[in-house]
Amino acid sequence: MKLAVVVGTNEVKRMRSALKFVNAAVTDSEVKLFILGECFKDKILDVEELHLKEAIESFLERGGKIYTCGTCIVVKKFIKDGEEGVCPLSTMEDLYEIIKWADKVIYF
């Protein structure tokens, strides 16, 4: 199955739930995660007890793809050196293409 997961929240616990979901789904589905707006501000990623950095790394290592709209600079600090293009800065047109590609769309 092809899943498009769209995250548009700045609520820490909802972000954690979205990352748990994509990590579960990527085991047997092709998953593209699109991050909108201010949901990946430093204050969210720096909440160490939630292990969001590790969840992002796990998702990418397992074949997930992350797309962002205007937040990529913050996310890139958590991506290993030399992995350019892992988290491309994306547009609303890209989001539309991902939604057309997907069998199912989930929004957090």
What do these coordinates show?
The chain is of the alpha/beta class. The chain has a single domain (2-107), classed as DsrEFH-like (Hypothetical Protein Ychn, Chain: A). The protein is built from 5 helices and 4 strands, in the order E-H-E-H-H-E-H-H-E. Helix 1 (12-25) packs parallel to helix 3 (52-61). The two termini are 19 Å apart. The mean pLDDT is 81.
Q: Give the neighbour order of strands across the main sheet.
A: 3-2-1-4
Structural class category: alpha/beta
* Fold-level CATH name: Hypothetical Protein Ychn, Chain: A
What's the CATH class, please? Alpha Beta
**Poorly predicted tracts of residues:** none
Q: What is the CATH superfamily classification?
A: DsrEFH-like
User: What is the strand content?
Assistant: 15-25%
Number of strands: 4
Number of helices, where a helix is a run of at least 4 consecutive DSSP H or I residues = 5
Instruction: Round the Cα radius of gyration to an integer and report it.
Output: 13 Å
Sketch the topology as an H/E string, one letter per element.
EHEHHEHHE
Percent helix range = 25-40%
Quickly count the domains.
1
3D shape:
globular
Distance between the termini: 19 Å
CATH architecture group name: 3-Layer(aba) Sandwich
Please describe the biggest sheet, giving its number of strands, its sense, and whether it closes into a barrel.
4 strands, parallel
Give the rounded overall mean pLDDT: 81
InterPro entries: DsrEFH-like, Sulphur_relay_DsrE/F-like
